[in-house]
């Protein structure tokens, strides 16, 4: 399902996804219509704009979080014109996997958009590299990530985008065992060694935010 108040972008997404073999079960222009459509027939994935009518503030995000809570098997990929750190943080902490946050400019990079959509549908995370870059760009005086090496920060950035260990190894041209070693070092340095499951990957990204 697609929720986007821009008719041009909404119809463009419908056509793109149909051409790629996806079934678009609904395409609506506001958050209220989206929730009604999901309740009637929960889809595999929802693609929603963060800002939609009537106030164009965070209606889409609120709908996305509602969907995450009420229909946990439905993945949510939200689109935003700008990097909204608070919104990205809320999505990251809304549950395990099946969530993504992309800048709208990324949609024109069709392969990247489709890859993010597929990862969200598989229950993984997919976060825009620019979102991750801005979240991680903090002062070394207050940034708890300052203890990490340059390579560990590279690995963490790839983790934050939602890539698996095997994908990180391929993207950074290193071995899988090296990636696992770097991730364990990240968990140790951020005090997350005693935490289990997917939450460690989320917490590793959010630790520096302070809340």
Explain this structure.
The chain is globular. The two termini are 32 Å apart. The mean pLDDT is 84. It has 10 helices and 6 strands. It is α/β, with parallel strands linked by helices and 211 residues long.
Shape: globular
What is the CA–CA distance across the termini?
Answer: 32 Å
Mean pLDDT score: 84
Biggest beta-sheet profile: 6 strands, parallel
Structure summary, number of beta strands? 6
Structural class: alpha/beta
How much of the polypeptide forms β-strand, as a percent range? 5-15%
Helical stretch tally? 10
Radius of gyration: 17 Å
**Widest sheet, order of strands:** 2-1-3-4-5-6
Low-confidence stretches: none
Range of helix content = 40-55%
Compressed to H and E, one letter per element, the order equals EHEHEHEHEHEHHHHH
Short description:
It contains ten helices and six strands.
Search tags:
211 residues, alpha/beta, 6-stranded parallel sheet, 10 helices, 6 strands, globular
